[in-house]
Each structure stands twice: as structure tokens, then as C-alpha cells.
Amino acid sequence: MIRTFQQHNLRPTRILNGLWDFITDPDNKGVSEGWASQFPVGSKKSVVPSCWNNELGTYDYIGAAWYRTHFDTTREANIRLVFEGILHHADVYVDGQHIGYHFGGFTQFAMILPHLTKGKHELVIRVDNTVDWQTLPTDIADWHSYGGIIRSVELQELPDVYIDTMKIDYQLKDNVADVQLQISLSSLSHEDSSVEVSATTEGLSLSAAHVLVVAGQSTQLTLSGSLADIQRWDVGQPALYTFTVTAGEDDLIDRTGFRTVEVQGSDILLNGKKLYLQGVNRHEEHPEWGFAFPPKLMLKDLDILSDMGCNIVRGSHYPQSQFWIDLLDEHGMLLWSEIPMWGCFMSVETLASPIFRERGVHMLEEMISRDYHHPSIIFWGAHNEIDTRTEEALELTKAFVGKIRSMDTSRLVTYATMHPEQDIVLSYFDVIGINKYYGWYEGSVDGFGTMLQNYYLNAEKQGAGGKPVIMSEFGAAGIFGDAGWEPRLFSEDYQAEVVTRALKIFRDDPRIVGTLIWHFADIRVDVRSDRPYFRDRARSFNNKGLLSEYRKPKLAYRLVKEIYRSER
Ligand code: ADA
């Protein structure tokens, strides 16, 4: 299950999730020994999707592992395999042949097998969760080093001429939407074909076109039309429009919502109205499922966010499951979406690495093209906690922000800085996110006041004075169940005190347009003996959750709920 709705009525699709053969390859001999065609005897079973780090014996395994399943085709067919998320390196083999490689654990990719013969086929995937100083994330990340096929695998049968992509753009004038659909068709045929293309949505048929698709090539076309009396998508008012494109024997269905997002002075406007953002950072993680987060729990997390009075969630620190983003669309909850930039705060070498930059730009491209239509996404986050005092960070910012703006001008671009007082990249962004942990890593909560004054001075100096500011991370650790009379470090009381005092400071500052508490729920972190980082994480968890890892509310949750539900 990838989406909350069907994306195809005509194109046959099936999910390949289930029990797959599985074996780890710690000595990296699978390639030379030909495991792609001769899967080793003695393999175990693993459920796809899942993370191997939630299973006995592979709790902290980092390295290669091989997965195998089979699928049948009842006739010669063009097969498209869609992988929603594999952590982090994936080599895909079908019937022993290498058909492609993908890097990046949180973005979807697809591979096409034209004219695959009728019969039984073997799908083998070599998965490797090894990360280093040039990967996103790097090998220093404040979460567990999960590996595996973490999201669904889908098989689609394509006709010879198929719809490759569909991009919905619109301009709004009052309650009229001028819509353009850019459609890309591709041919797997040996002959030229003429296909009829049409599109519909609630209350509108976009004019049909006859298109010639040259054998083996792709062609683009745009269909446009105007939709009157539209309902706007808004926080808590999730009006959605479903677009169905049909081209010959193929179809593609996607959804969007109509809304405007802009910055005016120090404010963010949604549909022309001032927004005050109240939310949390959330990892898509659970101690039993890791990053293979199940849909049932997504619904529950969403209920909890609504109960707390949130109108936004930050998808920290990577593109989240499409099912989750669909749910946010359906519930009118906003999302900050970003790529997995973690661990670059100490090393500018990583920021300057061409491979790292290329990987980041590619991930931004994959994230934006996958999620372009979601009305819930209000911000694209370019990076998190890099050393934004340096020229290396400036150059990387230019590349990342340039990529984002070249693909999408309908959303705001932001990031999270840990150096607000000396940051030199402020002017590249629409909205500035500040991560600071007064009351935890540095000094007392009162430090926020001085830090903010210094930030405002720096912003003036950088020509970025007056930009909207979001407190994108702040918080303290509190171990679930540890309560007492005195606010000791790691107690629920201490955490609640830091978070509530910080919220008071931010809500009283008219230049701050929102708060994202670190974080929603506790997460597992990686404290293996060869890793010097995060040894201060009690229980091997990042305990700054307002909820425990099993979603039980701590004191801070109840107090934040009161604050988020009260007038500012
Ligand atoms: C950073 C980081 C988070 C988390 C947090 C913490 O701000 O962005 O991912 O690690 O610190 O708990 O220290």
C-alpha cells in the first residue's frame, strides 16, 4: 500500500510485499559468488517492508543483505517495478540480470523491464545500509542505523505507450483555478502510435488531444482548463481534487488541493490569511518497526497531533511515506518536508564534496517530483544544522535552493540553522528555522532571549531582517515515568519546564511565526561501541519526545496541549 487511494484503474498493479528470502552478507561476497542468480541456501525469511534492525541477531547490523522474491507474468508484458524506499543503496536484479542501482533510502524509484517474457521471474535486491561522510545522512546521525526494504514494492504492467508523469499546476483568482496538466508519455513499442489523451477532475473535463508517440521515444503535452467555484484547501478544511489522466490503454490518478502560500513582511500567508504555526518534529519511527512505519500507527499519530492542537509537523529529517502525506492532505495538517541532511555540523569537507552535493540535489529532485501535488506541504527544507557560517555551506545552499526553486515556485524554502547569530546564508531563504537547545545543551532557557536579539542583528546585517522566523527545534529530554517534586535533568518535570518556558518566550515575540518542538515521540538512536556519538542518550533513545516511543503522553505533552489550544 503506497497511497491512500488508487492511482490506476486501467494499469494492472499489484503489491509484492510479504515474506521474502533474506540473508546478510557481512563479508561482501554476494556479488563475486553470484547470489543474484544463485541465492544462497540457508537464507531466512524477512517481511517486506521492514527493517532488519528490529529482528533478533541483526539489531545493529550495518552492511549488505540480499532479498529475494518471485513474481509471475501471464503473458509477455512491460513490467515497471516501483520501490518506495530502500535504505540506502539498492542493486536490483531480475532473473540474474542487474537492472539498476539507486542510492537514497527515503525516496521512491522505479525500473522498467520492457517486453518481459511470460512466466515466473526472480527479483533479487542487494541492500546496503552503509553510510559514510559523503552520504545523506552521513555516518553521524541521531537515529538508529536502520537498513532494509522499508517501504512497499509494487509491480505494474505497462501498455506499449504509457503515462510516465503528470504534473498539475494552477493559478488561483478568487475561486477560479486555471489548471495546466503537463503529461509525459513514453513508448516501449517498435512502431509509432497515436493515442487519445484526456483528463478529468471534479466538475471539469480538460480537452482531449490526439498525440503521436514515436516508437521508443517520449513526448510531452499540456492540457488546460478553468475550474470555477473551487473550494480551497486550508488547515482543517482539506478540500481535495482528484485528477484522472487517460492515454490510450493507460491511466494515472493523482490528487491536489488549491491554495496559495506566500510571505508578506514577517508573516506567512495561507490563502491570504496570516498563519501561526504550532507543531512538532516527527520521525517516522517506532521501536518495533523502525522506519517501516505501519499505516495504522500513522492514523494514530495524526490523531495525537490533532489532539495536541498542532497545525503543522516537520518531517524530520527525510521524505516521509506517501501514505502519511496523503493522510496530512486529507486532514488539513501542514508539512515541512526535507532531505536527510544530518551530521555535517562539524565537517565542511562533507559540504564541499561534489558527490555529496550531487546526491543532495538528486534527492531534492526525487522528493519534489514525488510530492509536488500535496497541498499539505508548505515548506521544502534544504538542510539541517550544517555549518552555515562557512563559504562551503553558502555554496551548497546556492546549489540546493537553486534546485528547489527551479522545480517549484509555489512553496516556501526554508532550513534549520544552528548558528543563527553568525549565519551567512539567511538571504537565500523565505523563512528561517532556528534550532537551539537552551535549557538542555547550552545554559538556561533565558538564553533564548539574548540569542534571538543577536539573530535579529545578524539578519539585518545579512540583508535578511524581517524574514519570518520559526523556532524549528528546541526541547529537553524527559524519561517517561520519571517524575518527582524537583525538576531533575531527564525527568518529565524538567522537560515540561524547559518546553513551556521556551514556548512562552517564543509566543510573546511578534517576529516568530511558529514553533516546532523537538520532538513528537522518543526514537531509538545508535550507540554501538565503535560510535563515539550520543553516549549521553539514556536507554539508547533520544528522549526529547513529548510522548514515549510507544506514544504514551509525558507531562510536557499535556502542558503543550494546553498552550497550543489556548489563544496567543
Ligand atoms: C538537533 C537535530 C535533531 C536532534 C536534536 C537533539 O537539533 O536536528 O535531529 O538530534 O538536535 O536531540 O540533540
Automatic annotation (TrEMBL):
Q: Which residues form the Glycoside hydrolase family 2 immunoglobulin-like beta-sandwich domain?
A: 161-259
Which Gene3D superfamilies has this protein been placed in? Galactose-binding domain-like, Glycosidases, Immunoglobulins
Domain Glycosyl hydrolases family 2 sugar binding residue range list: 66-159
Q: Where is the signal peptide?
A: none
For this protein, what is the EC number?
Answer: 3.2.1.31
Q: Which domain of life is it from?
A: Bacteria
Every Glycoside hydrolase family 2 catalytic domain range? 261-565
GO annotation, biological process: carbohydrate metabolic process; glucuronoside catabolic process
UniProt enzyme class: hydrolase
The record ties this protein, via InterPro entries, to: Beta-gal/glucu_dom_sf, Galactose-bd-like_sf, GH, Glyco_hydro_2, Glyco_hydro_2_cat, Glyco_hydro_2_N, Ig-like_fold, Ig-like_GH2
Keyword annotations: Glycosidase, Hydrolase
Query: From the Swiss-Prot or TrEMBL record, what is one GO molecular function term?
Result: beta-glucuronidase activity
What Pfam families does the annotation carry? Glyco_hydro_2, Glyco_hydro_2_C, Glyco_hydro_2_N
Key word rRNA processing present: no
Please name the PANTHER family in this protein's record.
BETA-GLUCURONIDASE
Q: Give the UniProt family note.
A: Belongs to the glycosyl hydrolase 2 family.
Protein name, as recorded: Beta-glucuronidase
Per the UniProt record, the source organism is Paenibacillus pectinilyticus
The uppermost taxa in this organism's lineage are: Bacteria, Bacillati, Bacillota, Bacilli, Bacillales
